[in-house]
What does this fold into?
Amino acid sequence: MKYALSISAALLLAMSQVQPSLAQNGANDLVKQAIAAEGGADALRALKGLAIKGEAKFWEPEQSEKAGGEPRFLGDATFTVTWDLAKEMARTEWDRDQKYPDPPVKLKYTETVSPTLGYVTDDKGSRAMSGIRVATHLRELGRASPWLLVKAMDAPKNVAAMGNQKLGKQSLPAVSFMDNGSKFTILFDSKTHLPAAIRTRDDDNIHGDSDYDLVLGD
It folds into this structure.
């Protein structure tokens, strides 16, 4: 009986070691499948810079006229991003039509960030960003970077398996990836294998811990 118990204990120990290994391999496989769906690691590494033009609309839920009411509309904006992926530097030019708070105002300014500093430039000159603004800007660039999955593939020990995660009505396979102190949860489309969303869990001074998603589309 003691012999049988010792064998069972050994088997349980072996199984406990194998299961995390299988989960880890599964997580890294999800990353590799997504990279292949995006054109392959070589193609992504060859992408050194981006130029992006877009439009944005802003709402502020905490400024609604009654509790639980419609979020207050803040305004529209157009923006242009010039992004050096290799140097981790980016310049974002903003043209904002701000409707709230009163009085309405049009704002034009440029945000420039590098791994060590950031500054804002407008018609009055340039001024340094706060450390937290630089850190936030860099994290959001990292979240949106086409190199994010390649970095995850190159650092498999920083990738961990997760259970399926909810995105709207969908339940999608996901992994977590630690990058420069930030934990990203990457959700994948089950059919295309492409990343569907990159999520962070952040503190909110009103709602407490909340999910913030960058949802990707065509």
